[in-house]
Amino acid sequence: MIEQAQASSSLAQAALEYPSTSVSGRIETKHGDAALIKYAELDEREAIRFVSDNGSGATVLFSGTTRDSFKGKKVTKLEYEAYTSLALSTLQQLLAKSHTSAPFTDTPVARSANAAPFSQVSSSQGNQDRVTRCYVAHRLGEVKVGECSILIAVSSPHRKEAFVVAEWLLEEVKKNVAIWKREFYATGESLTALDGQSTPVDSQHQAAAESGARLAEVDGGDATWSWKANFTST
C-alpha cells in the first residue's frame, strides 16, 4: 500500500510539471473500444485482456518503445504532452472508423479466406465482421529508453483484419492525434522538427509553430532536447 501511495504521489507530481491541458483521460465507445492517455506506465496485459473475445481467433498487439538513438544521436529519454480533450475526441473518431472499410481502403489487402464480404455483414452484426474490439493507450510524461509509449491491441475473427486495423490505427494516431514528444539527447546538439522529419528549424520555423512543434528555450549554448509534433500540419 505504501509503494502504491508513493507511486500515485510521483505520478501526480509529474503531471503538475506539464500544461493543465495535458492530463490523463479515457474514453470507451459503443463498439466496446477504449482509448486512454495517462502518465502511468502502460500495461500490455490490460490491453490484451480488454480486447479478448471468445469469438475472435486473432489478437494483435503493438508496443512502441523509446529507442536509444535518432539519426546518429544518442537518445536518453522522451517526454510526451497532449491536448487531452482534443486527442481523445480524435481517438474516438478513429476507433469508430476502425469498424468501417476505411482501414482497408487506405491499406488494400485481401480479406481472410473465411470472412464474409464487408458489404454482406448484417445490421445485427454491425461493422464487427472486420474487427471485434480495439484498444489504444498513449503514455504522457517521461518515457525512458526501452519503456513503452504506445500500445495498440486489436481482436478480430481473422488475423489479416487485425493486422491491418492495428497498423492503420498506429499511422492515424501519429498523423492526427494532438500529442507531442520531446526528445532528449546525450550531446548538446538540438534539432526541432516535425515528427519523422529532419529539416532544420530555421527553414521550417513557421510551419513547425503552426503545427504545434515547440522550440527549446535555452540560456545560451545548444539545447539538449527538441520538441516534435506527433502529427503533421494540414
Q: How big a fraction of the residues is strand?
A: 25-35%
**Distance N terminus to C terminus?**
47 Å
CATH topology: Aldehyde Oxidoreductase, domain 3
How many domains comprise the coordinates? 1
Instruction: Compute the number of helices.
Output: 6
DSSP helix fraction: 25-40%
The averaged pLDDT comes out at 77
How many beta-strand elements?
10
Class from helix and strand fractions: alpha+beta
**Strand adjacency order, main sheet:** 1-2-6-8-3
Name the poorly predicted regions: 119-128, 190-223
Pattern of helices and strands:
HEEHEEEHHEEEHEHE
Quickly give the CATH architecture.
Answer: Alpha-Beta Complex
Write down the Rg. 19 Å
Keyword list:
single chain; 234 residues; alpha+beta; Aldehyde Oxidoreductase, domain 3; 5-stranded antiparallel beta sheet; 10 strands
Architecture overview:
The structure is a single chain. The chain has 234 residues and is an alpha+beta fold. The chain has helices at 2-16, 44-51, 84-97, 102-106, 159-176, 205-210, and strands at 25-28, 34-38, 58-65, 69-70, 73-82, 133-139, 141-144, 148-156, 179-185, 225-229. The protein has a single domain, classed as Aldehyde Oxidoreductase, domain 3 (Alpha-Beta Complex). Helices cover 28% and strands 26% of the residues. The longest helix is centred in the C-terminal third of the chain and has 18 residues, at 159-176. The relative contact order is 0.18.
